[in-house]
Amino acid sequence: MAFLEPQVRFSDQALAEGFAVFLLNSTDKVTDNEGRLCGKVWDDEVRKRPNLDLPFIEELIRILIPQVRPQGSRNEIFLTGLSSGGYMTARAATHLDGLITALPRFQRRPYGWHRICEKNLSPRQTVFGAGFDNETGKQNPGT
């Protein structure tokens, strides 16, 4: 997959420069508005309930990373992601802004969408359903 090549180069360069790279894994507990499981996906929609992944990301930044950071290393945290991981990057940056040093400038659809987690909406095996724009009802590309 050509879109993965820049990510691999970024990770290789970051490691060569002495940075640690953490590849986070999403939850498998996200449901759509009807309560259907969505598979292995970030809890990236804005909902009335608390977010499932933000406490995990905050604990990683506040507790785990400081515990494993070598003595004398820099304290910056850089965050990036693609697709639903890109949404979680934006969500984490807006909720944990005092903890994150920088994130990439990226273009993604706005936060006016929702998931419908029916298995027949997508050929994917680990993420069920698709995303739809709240205003138009049209399916979002890449969901």
Your description of this structure?
This protein is mainly α and 143 residues long. It contains three helices and two strands, in the order αααββ. It has helices spanning 5-16, 54-68, 84-95; strands spanning 113-116, 130-133.
Question: Which labels suit this protein?
Answer:
single chain; 143 residues; mainly alpha; two-stranded antiparallel ribbon; 2 strands; 27% helix; 6% strand; globular
Strand order of the largest sheet: 1-2
What is the chain-wise order of helices and strands? HHHEE
| Tertiary shape | globular
Based on secondary structure, the structural category is: mainly alpha
Radius of gyration: 16 Å
What is the overall pLDDT average? 82
What are the segments in which pLDDT stays under 50 over at least 5 consecutive residues?
none
β-strand amount = 5-15%
At a glance:
The chain is mainly α.
Map the helices and strands.
Layout: H1 5-16, H2 54-68, H3 84-95, E1 113-116, E2 130-133
